[in-house]
Structures are given as C-alpha cells and as structure tokens.
Amino acid sequence: MDEKQIEDLFDFYGYSDLYKRFQYPLFVTGILDETSTEELEDFFESFSFHDHHPLFDEFRYWLQYFLITRKSFS
Question: Crossing angle of helices 37-46/3-12, nearest 10°?
C-alpha cells in the first residue's frame, strides 16, 4: 500500500487529522508497509478514534493487536 492509498483510507474513514499527525511516525516505523488495504479498512471498521485523540503509540498498539488477532483466527 502506498502513501496515497493510506492517506485516502484515513480520509475516507474521517481520520484525515489523525493521518496528518501520524504521517511521519507511520513512515518511520513502517507499520503499514506490510498491511493491506483490506486489513486497514477492517481495522477502521472495528475501532473508532472519533471520541478521543490517541497518541501514536496507542494507535500502533491497537493496530498491531488487531492484525495479530486477525491472523490468529484466519
């Protein structure tokens, strides 16, 4: 998934501000390098960050948790 696809998905789910805040940490950590668009879409459909503004570490924790549990049930 390239940077534009990631930005578009964040925007589609109403997280454009979150993407702007996390753009650099997402790039540096490479957390989304091996993540598919389907996985990120499923994550955004399962978790909501509309009611608070998470720090990047919290976002990363829940994303990794989601990806690991998703693979465990596949």
Answer: 20
Q: Where are the domains of the chain?
A: 3-72
Placement of tokens 């925007």 in the chain: 11
pTM of the full structure: 0.89
> Is the distance from CB of 30 to CB of 58 less than 8 angstroms?
no
Q: What is the pLDDT of residues 4-53, one digit of tens each?
A: 999 999 999 999 999 999 999 999 999 999 999 999 999 999 999 999 89
Cβ neighbours of residue 2 under 8 Å, at least 6 residues apart?
none
What is the phi-psi region of residue 58: left when phi exceeds 0, alpha when psi lies from -120 to 50, beta otherwise?
A: alpha
